[in-house]
TrEMBL record:
Ranges for domain AMP-dependent synthetase/ligase: 35-396
Record field: transmembrane: 88-109
Pathway: Siderophore biosynthesis
Pfam families reported in the protein's UniProt record: AMP-binding, AMP-binding_C
PROSITE patterns: AMP_BINDING (PS00455)
Superkingdom classification of source: Bacteria
Keyword tags: Ligase, Membrane, Transmembrane, Transmembrane helix
Name of this protein: 2,3-dihydroxybenzoate-AMP ligase
GO molecular function, one term: acid-thiol ligase activity
Signal sequence coordinates: none
Length: 542
């Protein structure tokens, strides 16, 4: 089955022609990009982690061998492979091997567990899963066995490191066939959406559109051959992947440093040792780094740019970045579906501190609309919709989500409420949809509610976001116990930990209530209910 079965998934002919004419889409593939860099500067260092230092030529050779291994498993161009690899150098040979073989990575996060991985496997029709043996104290091999038990199509599990009961990445027999031609207009990989309703959606990104987004981002962020980009957030996430991220860095012929976790201790040590020039973090991590830098001196003098994005960075915190860390702040407001906004490095300080930047492309179409779909004047809040040369037109294999999330003329409804300022700068005001943005991790209220309802002692549940000084937002579950049930918060949390979900989805707080308010006419919408519960909670100053 093809990756793009929904005709809306591709850009209409006239848009594709425009994006090619303007030079955004250059007909380049991931595989060709790596080949070109390895030919231009074979000996330059491409990727570094705690145990590896690989040049561009070495990386290409490993990726070519991996491509042969992937094909040797019997996988065919277009087949999907779930990639759950943390911030280690081996991410690159594995993923570029997939690209060279015409295979389609599905990027899972290291935090994802059985339930989420099984959903990706089913939705993507994935045939294989690639993991590392262990990372940061967690063994991924038993998890992969569980996933495989529930996903009949998942024929192969490949392990980087000690394979255990699975296949050894370094010992896959080569297919011995030439690598396939890869169409630059085809889907290169599936990214995971943070999504507000139900389960995560899969985001199809093509070679053409994605390479444009990180090539242009590398320019905006000033990346060149002397830049050293550190991936501090999980590399599978769209921000460290492409804004400009590891891919933008490789495009620019720069060096990528893989940071295993974003703690100040680990990150500052690596910044000092590797002379890192640019990295990106979510607001809570930026807060921790500023605290750590104020307490003990570290040599982070090589750092020129700290990017902050994924959730709102309040101006008071933004103003402290230069004084405490000694580098330029760049705010990044992006989404895996496409549109990415940056403050520019030479913007006036008030723009850098007070806005979330402006779009990458002159052909990013940005609409700010009221509830009835009419444009609002600059400076007033409205719904952000967008369309452009690197914003998807549809999710993978999800007609219901597509009907909700895209207009008939192909605009993506971001769910964000923004103000547009003169010059196209955006200020994020909030969100229309119901997800919790917990330190940049997006949690769907509906997904968590469905899991809570599976508990016998729970009659009803509503999950809402509560403002949190450190996380930005935390999750709070309002629970009505079933008749006769006695339930306590720790029990609810332990139950959620048995559901095979990423730990960040366990509610931070559980509040028991006797009933949910309903209007005189009867049932109210979940959105209204959540809004009421949030308001009541905040009123009571809990
Ligand atoms: C407020 N909200 C923000 C910001 C994202 C670069 C940077 C981030 C992402 C990302 C990304 C925000 N202020 N600075 O993919 O390439 C919220 C919005 C948005 C949603 C997208 C990138 N930056 N957000 O966070 O797909 O609500 O991408 O719609 O995970 O995060 O989430 P995600």
């Amino acid at each position: 089955d093809p990756v793009s079965s929904d005709p809306r998934q591709v850009w209409p002919q006239e848009f594709a022609a425009l994006y090619r004419d303007k030079g955004y889409w250059r007909g380049e593939t991931f595989g060709e990009m790596l080949r070109a860099r390895a030919a231009e500067h074979p000996d330059r260092l491409a990727v570094v982690d705690a145990t590896h230092r690989w040049s561009y030529a070495e990386l290409l050779a490993m990726a070519e061998r991996a491509a042969q291994g992937w094909m040797g498993l019997g996988l065919c161009p277009g087949d999907r492979v779930i990639v759950q690899i943390p911030n280690v150098a081996a991410f690159f040979p594995a993923v570029f091997g997939l690209f060279l073989a015409g295979l389609v990575p599905v990027y899972a996060l290291p935090a994802h567990r059985q339930t989420e991985l099984a959903h990706f496997a089913a939705r993507a029709g994935a045939k294989a899963l690639v993991i590392v043996d262990r990372h940061e104290g967690f063994d991924y091999r038993p998890l992969a066995l569980e996933v495989q038990a529930g996903a009949p199509g998942l024929a192969h599990v490949v392990v980087i490191g000690e394979p255990g009961p699975h296949l050894d990445f370094d010992a896959l027999p080569a297919a011995g066939r030439p690598l396939p031609q890869v169409d630059p207009a085809s889907v290169a990989f599936l990214q995971i959406s943070g999504g507000s309703t139900g389960l995560s959606k899969l985001i199809p990104r093509t070679h053409d559109d994605y390479i444009y987004s990180f090539r242009a981002s590398a320019g905006i962020c000033g990346l060149g051959p002397d830049s050293i980009y550190m991936a501090a957030l999980p590399v599978a996430h769209n921000f460290p992947m492409s804004s400009p991220g590891v891919m933008g860095a490789l495009y620019a012929g720069a060096r990528v440093v893989m940071c295993p976790n974003p703690s100040a201790d680990t990150a500052f040590r690596l910044i000092a040792a590797e002379r890192v020039t640019i990295t990106g973090v979510v607001p809570p991590v930026a807060l921790l780094w500023m605290q750590a830098a104020a307490k003990t001196p570290h040599d982070i003098s090589s750092l020129q740019v700290l990017q902050v994005g994924g959730a709102k960075f309040i101006p008071e915190a933004a103003a402290r970045v230069r004084p405490t860390l000694g580098c330029t702040l760049q705010q990044v407001f992006g989404m895996a579906e496409g549109l990415v906004n940056y403050t520019r490095l030479d913007d006036p300080e008030e723009t850098i501190i007070g806005t979330q930047g402006r779009a990458i492309s002159p052909d990013d179409e940005v609409l700010v609309l009221d509830d009835d779909g009419n444009p609002v004047p600059d400076g007033l809040p409205g719904h952000l919709l967008t369309r452009g040369p690197y914003t998807i037109r549809a999710y993978h294999n999800d007609p219901a989500a597509n009907a909700r999330s895209f207009t008939d003329d192909g605009f993506y409804r971001t769910g964000d409420i923004v103000k547009r300022l003169p010059g196209g700068y955006l200020v994020v005001q909030g969100r229309a949809g119901d997800h919790i943005n917990r330190a940049g991790e997006k949690i769907s209220a509906e997904e968590i509610e469905d899991h809570l309802l599976a508990h016998q002692g729970i009659f009803d549940a509503a999950v809402v976001s509560i403002p949190d000084a450190f996380l930005g937002e935390r999750s709070c579950a309002f629970v009505i116990p079933a008749a006769g049930a006695t339930l306590r918060a720790p029990e609810v949390k332990s139950f959620m930990r048995t559901r095979g979900l990423a730990e960040f989805k366990v509610p931070d707080q559980v509040v028991f209530v006797d009933e949910f308010q309903t209007t005189a006419v009867g049932k109210i919408s979940r959105n209204t209910l959540r809004a009421q519960l949030r308001a009541r909670f905040l009123d009571q100053g809990k």
